[in-house]
Design goal:
The complex is a heterotetramer of chains A (300), B (402), C (231) and D (338). With 402 residues, chain B is an alpha/beta fold. Chain B has eleven helices and 15 strands. In chain B, strands 3, 4, 6, 7, 8 and 9 form a six-stranded antiparallel β-sheet that branches. In chain B, strands 12-11-10-13-14-15 form a six-stranded parallel β-sheet, sandwiched between helices. The termini of chain C are close together. The model of chain C has no long low-confidence stretch (mean pLDDT 86). Classes of the chains: A alpha/beta (300), B alpha/beta (402), C mainly alpha (231), D mainly alpha (338). Chains in contact: A-B, A-C, A-D, B-C, B-D, C-D.
């Protein structure tokens, strides 16, 4: 016991790093080879996102704003995949924009991964369109409140938005029955709430997928201003399970395509890392109390 | 997926076929054609920036088969002729008002509303007179905001003036700020540099500006103590601002010759490229003291943990609430939110700047009182809905503009 | 004089912006400023690049320790600028095939996209991933029950950590329905909705006042430390 | 060599040996493939430059998953539509090297990390410079000042600028030039002017946005009833009411106490001291929650990097079915060897 405490007190942090590497890499290898994932029970916030998309009539225009960059892709790309997956399966019109400069590339990636490979009948420019990046952060949001085309005059590939069939009937942001933002920071979900949802007087409905860091800050807005939210990879996994469940054949004869299981796979390393963190906190406190006891003994 | 889609397609075919078959049979006698609205009025939205007109209409008692309203406008040109009818909006049958936006604020407009159903449209009902969307001098709906700003500014200015008149301004200790002198002194003693990071955002972020004002004080102390201060920046403009500030501080400290512009350098705009540089630099140069003052995101913990591993004294300040936990966990001192914003005033020690802190307190006091009043009203309103309290709460919200 | 002019520029520009929000004629000045700022920041890149080049060239010419790395930086910088501005290897834009410069700079196949995918992304994403290690070491060191505050900090983190994984379901999933509020996953939601809302709200209100007072000090010319403390 | 150092040396050696084994047992790893795409575009005749209508063709190569290459090869070993991509394969290995180099910083600073650092500084500074040029200067500044040039060469569908835009951009150009005066041998002090303008404008704008978006909105949001009857079909339910009322009360008390903590002009003693202390407790719970949530995100990022190494580079696992059969063989042989 004493030696353990002594080790803990002087523990080189590199051992903690090694333990973390193992706690994450181990489950990845195991899940990667066996293909088994942990079960998920969706929380109301994730269910709300699913229902918001499900309840729209097919063909509804949906604005998807990719406000993140590859740095947060580990958390947010699985959400983006499932969100686009559900929208595509329900036949909604998807209008993609990005307020982060690196967003458009991620939009193209997701389009390629989901729409072009599994929904080849959806046509670019008709059923979906990538309008690319606009600089200006919340200024862009203020502009699209009154005039969508002023902020996004052309598509990413350079054609004028007025000629794009997917944009028919879209004058301002309130013409979208639903707004989806995938957000990693500033500008992101919080700014969308402040400048778009609030200014529209509740006319604009919004759901968000956000990083773990943002989740606590967005909670005060749910469910009044945010109709649903996916918090971190956990939210992504819950939502992914919901979407896969609803799109699976009734007799469960076919397992979902592994590319639609990304978030649920990531929950394995998540569990390993969280358990390690918990163990570290407990060990740290054992060391702390043991040291205090020794010190108290020495002074008395 | 293909299966689902083809099933859906099959269903649609079935539905169409059925409709085609039934059509002659079930052309329902009950559904009369859509009835036009009884009257249409259009009014300029008052106290706005111009360009919007609100249109409202009175629907007929029997709507017939109408399912939507089609609202159209026609602009009267400079020569007095009416232009073509342009759709303003198509709204659900339950709605009876809509707003036409993006209009010219000089030209008059006609409006008309048509009821539209599955089996055709009604005749349109026109607005009785043309309307112009005037641009007003002041945006009325911003009056509450204007008064809120005025109140906050008045609080701050009042206490600044009071301080100038010699009223003593007591401010509580802020440990993190008291530690700055010692931390700078430590760097001098150890003969190691001081590292100052003013966040990773540009000069259009007020936190960066606040960080630069703190840099002004820290670099002045550093100049007096003869300590080296390094300022890597992730934006070119911040580099420029930091150079101006530090150079002026060295001048004010009477040691302009000791200023070295190359210690304040631009690294890269890329968040993690910048962090890669700063953490590498920290491990190699081992600064005695690190300041993180500005807007930080994920990099906060990388910087603070690296600083911790080299045994530097670390003082952080940010208004980015998501990063506060990491600074609190890994730094020696952390300025939380408003404390960071107050740092420059506190460090200056000038009475009028201290006075402005008291003005901030007055703002908080007003906010607290409003919260208490609002909560009391809300409680009564919840207990007896519809009473005086409900009205008062509504009025209070109105005054605050939300 | 050298300090008076900029101070007045700041004061006039600031008050003009403050008031512009309330008048229809000037309401959108703030948005215009966003564009102006972005352009100025892009022009200022010349200064940043100059500083980068100067510092690294000095290292090379002085043969400072590690000057080889400075050479690497300079080479990488030059190559990226050249292929990026020149759109090297970027395929044509099918919409405007007649214009050779209309291709997308980050289109697949271009040299700029290659640099992005194989140098920028791996390094920045891995730097970001280092955080997973640092949260562990920070938690081990800092989350010790020294006093009541620290106990609250660590126990909240504890509940959230467990509540957000499968472990939470296993540990407290057996609780009967009437006590379902104590299940870890529900507990973490309450913490977010009550304590976190209160704490964040107060921080936000405080910051708003702090920002206003800071801005006002600058606009009144009282805080001039951004152009050097004192006068 | 001290005890821990020896242990570390062994661990690193084991990793290197495992990598060596993986590379030698074959089954393929770290290869990338791309598919040929013939593109064609019609260019209409241009009467101004007197060029006739013509057709332009060019070839693009798009990255594809290895399984597409394997399938194409199985179908026709002579095919040239999908081919091994040297550039992407080299890139993949460089990416893997940089990933490991950055991770090695956790052990200690070393030449690999310094190389990655030197590369990322050069590349990313230039990257953002290029982005600034094409995304800001080209459409905004040049698009406003020389629109016909930009439309004729770079962005044909760029709308014509309004007079206001032209004025704003001219102003921006003047500010930029003043800023660049810093480089001139004399008159560098004038660069403080644009800086003063930017700082002043930022200060002015932020007062409005923070009071509007944060101060007023958050204050009003706290107007919650302390007793909040929860009715189901008009009947007040006891327990839900108690819980909802308790939650509201805790929020209101928390906001007031935390605000008290931020008071500067009052010492934290007596009643104020107790309120401030309660405030600190709320803040600590807030921070603990934020910490817990952040861990989630960070682990996901690490998992993504490790998946890159195991999946794209080493071909040890294939969760997304990028390669299907081939990889299973290599993973199993690896495990057998182990």
């Amino acid at each position: 016991m004493k030696t353990l405490v002594a080790i803990l007190e002087k523990l080189d942090r590199r051992w903690i790093f090694l333990a973390m590497a193992l706690a994450v890499a181990g489950p990845i290898l195991i899940i990667g080879i066996t293909g088994k994932t942990l079960p998920e029970t969706p929380t109301p916030a994730a269910r709300a996102v699913y229902n918001a998309i499900e309840s729209l009539p097919p063909g509804s225009p949906i604005l998807l704003s990719f406000d993140f960059d590859p740095g947060s892709g580990g958390e947010l790309l699985p959400m983006a995949t499932s969100l686009v997956h559900q929208c595509a399966a329900r036949g909604h019109r998807m209008i993609f924009i990005a307020l982060w400069p690196l967003g458009p590339t991620l939009i193209d990636q997701t389009i390629k991964k989901v729409i072009q490979s599994d929904y080849p009948n959806l046509k670019e420019g008709v059923d979906y369109v990538n309008l690319g990046f606009q600089s200006g952060n919340e200024a862009v949001m203020k502009v699209i409140l009154t005039d969508f085309r002023k902020a996004f005059p052309t598509t990413k590939s350079g054609s004028a938005v007025s000629t794009v069939a997917a944009m028919k009937g879209i004058e301002r942001v309130s013409d979208f029955p639903l707004l989806i933002t995938i957000s990693a920071g500033y500008p992101g979900a919080k700014e969308w709430i402040q400048y778009v949802v609030s200014s529209s007087g509740g006319k604009v409905k919004m759901v968000t997928g956000c990083t773990g860091v943002q989740t606590p800050q967005l909670f005060p807005y749910y469910p009044a201003q945010l109709n649903g939210m996916l918090g971190a990879i956990k939210g992504a996994a819950e939502y992914e399970a919901l979407v896969n469940e609803s799109l699976a054949p009734k007799d469960h004869s076919a397992a979902p395509n592994p590319k639609y299981l990304e978030a649920q796979r990531r929950m394995g390393p998540q569990l390993g890392a969280h358990l390690l963190m918990v163990a570290l906190i407990i060990l740290g406190n054992i060391a702390f109390f043991a040291a205090r006891k020794t010190k108290a003994g020495a002074t008395s | 997926m293909q299966i689902i889609l083809s099933v859906a397609a099959a269903r649609m075919c079935a539905a169409t076929a059925c409709a085609a078959l039934c059509a002659p049979l079930c052309a329902s006698p009950s559904a009369s054609p859509p009835t036009p609205p009884l009257s249409v009025t259009a009014a300029d939205v008052p106290w706005d920036a111009g360009g919007s007109i609100e249109i409202s209409w009175v629907p007929a008692a029997n709507l017939g088969s109408a399912t939507t309203w089609l609202v159209e406008r026609s602009e009267i040109g400079a020569d007095g002729t009416s232009g073509p009818w342009v759709t303003v909006a198509e709204v659900a049958i339950a709605t009876t008002t809509t707003t036409a936006a993006k209009l010219s604020h000089t030209a008059p407009y006609w409006f008309r509303v048509t009821a539209v159903g599955s089996d055709g449209s009604s005749s349109p009902t026109n607005s009785p007179a043309h309307t112009t969307a005037h641009r007003n001098f002041f945006i009325g709906e911003k009056l509450p905001l204007f008064s809120a700003i005025l109140t906050v500014c008045a609080c701050v200015i009042y206490f600044i003036l009071a301080a100038r008149k010699g009223r003593p301004m007591k401010v509580r200790r802020i440990a993190a700020l008291e530690a700055i002198d010692n931390a700078v002194g430590r760097a001098t003693e150890m003969g190691r540099p001081i590292l100052f990071v003013a966040g990773i955002q540009d000069m259009d972020n007020i936190q960066t500006v606040a960080g630069i004002t703190v840099l002004g004080h820290v670099s002045k102390t550093a100049a007096e103590y003869d300590a080296t201060i390094e300022v890597p920046t992730s934006r070119s403009l911040v580099m420029e601002a930091a150079r101006e500030t530090v150079q002026a501080s060295y001048l004010a400290a009477g040691r302009p010759e000791a200023y070295n512009a190359d210690l304040i350098r631009y690294i890269t705009d890329e968040q993690f490229g910048f962090v890669a540089y700063v953490s590498g630099r920290m491990v190699r140069e081992k600064p005695a003291t690190c300041f993180y003052m500005g807007c930080f995101y994920a990099e906060s913990l990388i910087l603070a943990e690296t600083g911790n591993s080299i045994g530097a004294i670390q003082i952080a300040g940010t208004a980015e609430s998501s990063q506060l936990p990491f600074f609190v966990a890994a730094c020696d001192y952390t300025l939380i939110g408003e404390e960071f914003m107050a740092a420059s005033a506190y460090l200056s020690g000038e009475p009028d700047q201290m006075g402005s802190l008291k003005g901030q307190d007055a703002g908080k006091a007003i906010a607290s009182v409003l919260i208490i009043v609002g909560v009391v009203l809300a409680t009564f309103a919840a207990l007896s809905p519809g009473g005086f309290a409900t009205a008062a709460l509504g009025a209070l919200r109105g005054i605050l503009g939300s | 004089m050298r300090r008076m002019v900029p101070m007045w520029i700041a004061i006039i520009a600031g008050f003009a912006m403050l008031l512009s929000a309330f008048f229809p004629m000037t309401e959108s000045l703030g948005e215009t400023f966003g564009d102006v700022f972005n352009v100025v920041a892009a022009i200022a890149f010349i200064l940043g690049a100059g500083s980068l080049a100067k510092v690294n060239l000095a290292k090379v010419s002085r043969r400072d320790p590690g000057w080889g790395f400075a050479v690497v930086t300079l080479i990488c910088f030059t190559i990226t600028i050249v292929v990026g501005l020149g759109k090297f290897g970027v395929p044509q834009n099918p919409q405007f095939a007649a214009l050779p410069w209309s291709g997308e700079k980050e289109a697949e196949g271009g040299a700029f996209a290659w640099i992005y995918a194989y140098a920028l992304v791996p390094i920045t994403a891995t730097m970001f991933a280092l955080l997973a290690f640092y949260v562990a070491s920070a938690a081990f060191r800092a989350f010790r029950a020294k006093n009541l505050e620290a106990i609250l900090l660590l126990s909240t983190a504890f509940i959230i950590l467990l509540g957000r994984t499968f472990a939470g379901v296993v540990l407290t999933g057996w609780l009967p329905d009437w006590a379902s509020g104590l299940r870890l996953e529900n507990l973490s939601v309450y913490i977010m909705q009550v304590f976190n809302t209160a704490g964040n709200r107060a921080i936000i209100i405080g910051i708003a006042l702090g920002v206003s007072a800071t801005s006002l000090r600058i606009l009144l010319g009282i805080d001039r430390s951004w152009m050097g403390s004192g006068d | 060599m001290s005890g821990p150092t020896r242990t570390w040396a062994i661990i690193i050696a084991v990793i290197i040996v495992l990598l060596g084994v993986r590379m030698s047992i074959g089954g393929g790893m770290g290869r990338a493939y791309s598919q040929r795409l013939e593109q064609k575009a019609e260019v209409p005749a241009n009467s101004q430059t007197n060029t006739p209508a013509r057709t332009i063709t060019w070839t693009e190569w798009h990255a594809v998953q290895p399984k597409i290459y394997f399938a194409a090869q199985r179908a026709d070993p002579q095919q040239t539509q999908v081919a091994f991509s040297w550039s992407d394969t080299i890139g993949l290995w460089i990416g893997a090297f940089f990933t490991l180099a950055v991770f090695s910083f956790l052990y200690r600073d070393n030449a690999g990390y310094r190389l990655a650092e030197a590369v990322i500084i050069g590349v990313s500074a230039a990257y953002w410079g290029v982005i600034g040029f094409w995304d800001t200067l080209m459409p905004k500044l040049f698009g406003a000042l020389v629109p016909s040039f930009v439309q004729a060469h770079v962005m044909p569908s760029l709308p014509n600028p309004s007079t206001a835009t032209v004025i704003a951009m001219t102003f921006a150009l003047v500010l930029g030039v003043l800023l660049l005066m810093r480089l001139a041998p004399k008159g560098g002090w004038i660069s403080l002017w644009p800086m003063a303008f930017i700082i002043g404008v930022t200060a002015g704008l932020k007062i409005v946005s923070h009071i509007e978006g944060d101060l007023v909105a958050q204050t009003v949001a706290t107007f919650k009833p302390l007793i909040s009857p929860q009715r189901i079909e008009g009947v007040v339910e006891i327990w839900p009411t108690v819980w909802a009322s308790l939650a509201n009360t805790l929020v209101v008390v928390g906001v007031l106490c935390c605000l008290t903590y931020f008071f500067f002009s009052v010492d934290h003693k007596g009643v104020v001291g107790r309120a401030a202390r309660t405030g600190i407790m709320y803040l600590m719970i807030t921070f603990g929650a934020a910490f817990g949530f952040t861990v989630m995100g960070r682990v996901a990022l690490l998992a993504a990097r490790i998946e890159f190494l195991f999946d794209d580079w080493l071909w040890l696992i294939d969760p997304a079915g990028k390669r299907t059969i081939e990889v299973a063989a290599s993973a199993v042989s690896m495990l057998c060897w182990w």
